[in-house]
Amino acid sequence: MKKFVVLILVGLMSAALLLSGCSSSSKSGSSKSGKNQFKGTVKLGISSWIGFAPMYLAEEKGFFEKNGVKVKLQTIQSASDRRTAMAANRIQGFFTTVDTHVMTAAADIPVYQVLALDTSSGGDGIVAKKDIKSFADLKGKKVAIDTSGGASYFWFMYMLDQNKMTMDDVKIVNMSAGDAGAAFVGGKVDAAVTWQPWLTKAEKTPFGHVLLSSDKTPGLIVDSLGLRKDFVDENPKLVQGIVNAWYDALDYAKAHPDEADKIMAKSMGQTVADFKATEPDVTFYDKEGNIKYFGTKSDPGLIYDVTDKAATFWKKVKLISKQPKATDMINGDFVGK
Predict the structure, then answer these.
(1) Interatomic CA distance for residues 207 and 183, integer angstroms
(2) 42-120+220-328 — its CATH code?
(3) Which of 13, 32, 230, 323 stands 20 to 30 A from 108 (CA)?
(4) Is 45 helix (H, G, I), strand (E, B) or coil?
């Protein structure tokens, strides 16, 4: 009998300990699901594009740590590979164009754009024969362009829309942006959507000129930082730290241009002279620029229109099957703090 009583007492004690353990585990799990509990290094996918260079400056000068966040810039040259890495949570976010983030959201990978980095200020453009004097003059002309997606394609479609034209109004020749520039310089097409150095090369031909340059359309070809939605929702302080580090890097570059250019040129694998030569092709978004570009919920900035237009265009040309909404992809809570 005594043995039976002892066994009952042992069983009751074990059950109590088990329940206590479950309670403790539940509390621990609740703590981990709270705000700002991410303790590791935030990994961000990046490529060697000049518009991302100040992020390397922020890394080198310790601005991430200064703002309370550990960041590793992980080089992944392909935007699609960056997207795959974020979907697998191997990275928490990546840098790319606004229109490319639309493709990410359309692939059922929840993403928030939280920071605008740069806008093309002449690095992209449309070259054409000199008798083509306006965008409307492209009607019926042979235009070389990369139709696989990307900023150049989006920009061209945006300009078609602004001029009340469609892709059917021009004769599209599909090729990469570099090949498009070469084809124009070689006299094989009437116009081409391309980038530097082909814009300059086209102007040096006896028959070509730059019909439209991206410096005339600020805010359309823009790079932004997209982060996993769950990471943003759960770690607002870390997101704010990344945004503030970007602002600190831009301030530092203005105050110490020579040192900053050396650091950024090295990160791009360029000489300082080559880096300085390409710097005018982009305009970086500082705090004031971000506040204007994002706007407010009651008065949305240009990023909302660009995002929605990209979703519409990509769906129309069947590059995506689902059309995400800009309001579901943009979080402007951090740019003005």
Answers:
(1) 13
(2) 3.40.190.10
(3) 32
(4) strand
Q: What top-level class would CATH report for the domain 124-216?
A: alpha beta
Query: Residue type for 8, please?
Result: I
Q: Are strands 93-97 and 42-46 parallel, antiparallel or unpaired?
A: parallel
Question: How confident is the model over 279-288, as pLDDT tens digits?
Answer: 999 999 999 9
Spell out where 65-207 has E strands: 71-75, 93-97, 111-120, 124-129, 142-145, 171-174, 191-195
Token readout for 192 is: 């081409």
What lies within 8 Å, CB to CB, of 241 at 6+ separation is: 64, 67, 68, 69
Q: Omega of the bond prior to 54 within 30 degrees of 0, cis?
A: no
Tokens of residue 97, six digits: 């164009």
Intrachain domains 42-120+220-328 and 124-216 with the same fold: yes
34 — pLDDT class (breaks 50, 70, 90)? low
pLDDT of 2 higher than 60: no
Q: How sure is the predictor about 16, in pLDDT bands with cuts at 50, 70 and 90?
A: very low
Token digits of residue 83: 């997207």
For 200-236, give the DSSP string: HHHHTSSSEEEEEEGGGSTTTSEEEEEEEHHHHHH-H
Q: Is 96 helix (H, G, I), strand (E, B) or coil?
A: strand
In whole angstroms, give the CA distance from residue 222 to residue 213. Answer: 14
Tell me if residue 116 falls in helix, strand or coil.
strand
Domain boundaries, the chain: 42-120+220-328, 124-216
- The DSSP code for 41 is P
Give the list of residues 6+ apart from residue 117 with CB closer than 8 angstroms, or none: 51, 52, 54, 55, 95, 222, 223, 224, 225, 246, 284, 285
